[in-house]
Amino acid sequence: MVISSIDLKDGHVVQLKNGKDLVLQRDDADALISQFNIYGEVAVIDLDAALRNTDEKSDTKNTGLLKSLLRKGNVRVGGGIRDVKKARELVSLGAEKVIVGSAAWAGSPQAGGSVLNTEFLDELARAIGRQRIIISVDAINGKIAVRGWTETVNVPLVEGAKAAERYASELLFTCVEKEGCMQGTDMEQVRALRSAVSCRVVAAGGVNSLEQVVELERLGCDVQLGMALYTGAVSLKDSFIGCLDWEKTGGLVPVIAQSPAGEVLMMGFANKEAFEKTADTGRLTFFSRTRNRLWTKGETSGHYLEVQKLRADCDRDTVLATVVPHGGVCHTGSFTCFGSAPDEKSTLERLYATIAERFANPRPGSYTATLNDERVREKIMEEAEELTDDAETKADIIWEAADVLYFISVLMYKEGVTWQDVYNELDRRHKEK
């Protein structure tokens, strides 16, 4: 599968040739990550940090932008991660994985010594876990490249990869000579690397066609793409479809639809044309085996499924679609095909959505729509006092806690704060410890 790359330099999104020459520059990082995250993970790379263009606080011109992107998708982050404190901070801010480059390498190995900075990597693995660590095995002329690809160490690619695998859940290989050149990557080196290690391998640098993306997928490698995406040489949609195992599935891939809260809604099958239509319309489309035609959920009922993201499983023979349901999903009227309840179960997100709807479309007699900023703050204090001072039984606590959560949700909506923002802060605090 494809991992889209957002490379940052001097506060802009850029693409460089051979890691040095500026080829393109743009300033739409938010739009890019929204587009990229539909089809897979996104790599956000701080090139200035990799080149040590930092201030006294170790920040770069990209720091603010980078941090703002970390919870806008399934993000891995790299560039200048040289200490455990920095790695932990990035994970706490939302990075799912961190990419470690120069700091992982010890330089030329001594007799009997390690090619890796094992002291740092041991500490890093203890702090954030091996599953969150990606080690760059970038190479120039077959040697490991460091310091923003400005230097090499006397470590052959395969030797370094075998050593690094112990500390990482995956390895990121960039053929630096091919990077940004749009001439295809070095398949010989990729094959040698893939056969040498058992962990996940991501290939980057020079990939310039859908055919090569699929070829790398068949080798068991993911692909990190930059220039090919920005120039339109490779389509994310086509790459996602092309990397699915159509031979194994007989041309119909099972698609599981789930809500953003993780509730399983329904399951259907999709062929290539169905995925094409899903991508073109943003609404989940299946292939109906009984009617022998494409079928977009909601085309008659109006209860469609708005697609947020698609993820293939590890075998590439099943797809998980995260969708926002507009109306009941099941033909029975139920929120899910796997339950008999006619409506979605109550969640904080559902409460928030209901509050938003009440303010957007006030109904006669709606209490919610009458709440101004001053009144809702008064009600939070009033209900919190009732919860702490008056609630004595379990039933009392449940009742009063529900009131508190309702008024807190109203205040959050009025101030533009979502429950996901709160979850993110709780997650950050948990990961800081």
Descriptive overview:
It contains 16 helices and 19 strands. The longest helix is centred in the last third of the chain and has 21 residues, at 394-414. The chain is globular, with a radius of gyration of 25 Å. The chain is 37% helix and 23% strand. The chain starts with a strand and ends with a helix. The model has no long low-confidence stretch (mean pLDDT 90). With 433 residues, the protein is an alpha/beta fold. It has an eight-stranded parallel barrel with strand order 1-4-5-6-7-11-12-13, surrounded by seven helices. Strands 15-14-19-18 form a four-stranded mixed β-sheet, covered by helices on one side.
Task: Please outline the helices and strands.
Layout: E1 2-9, E2 12-17, E3 21-26, H1 29-36, E4 42-46, H2 47-50, H3 63-69, E5 75-78, H4 84-92, E6 97-100, H5 118-128, E7 133-136, E8 139-140, E9 143-146, E10 151-156, H6 157-164, E11 170-174, H7 187-196, E12 200-204, H8 210-219, E13 221-225, H9 227-230, H10 236-243, H11 246-249, E14 253-258, E15 264-270, H12 272-281, E16 285-288, E17 293-296, E18 305-312, E19 319-325, H13 348-360, H14 373-390, H15 394-414, H16 419-432
Parallel strand pairs: 1-4, 1-13, 4-5, 5-6, 6-7, 7-11, 11-12, 12-13, 14-19
Antiparallel strand pairs: 1-2, 2-3, 8-9, 9-10, 14-15, 16-17, 18-19
Q: Can I get a quick summary?
A:
37% of the residues lie in helices and 23% in strands. With 433 residues, the protein is α/β, with parallel strands linked by helices. It has an eight-stranded parallel beta barrel, surrounded by seven helices. The protein has a four-stranded mixed beta sheet with strand order 15-14-19-18, covered by helices on one side.
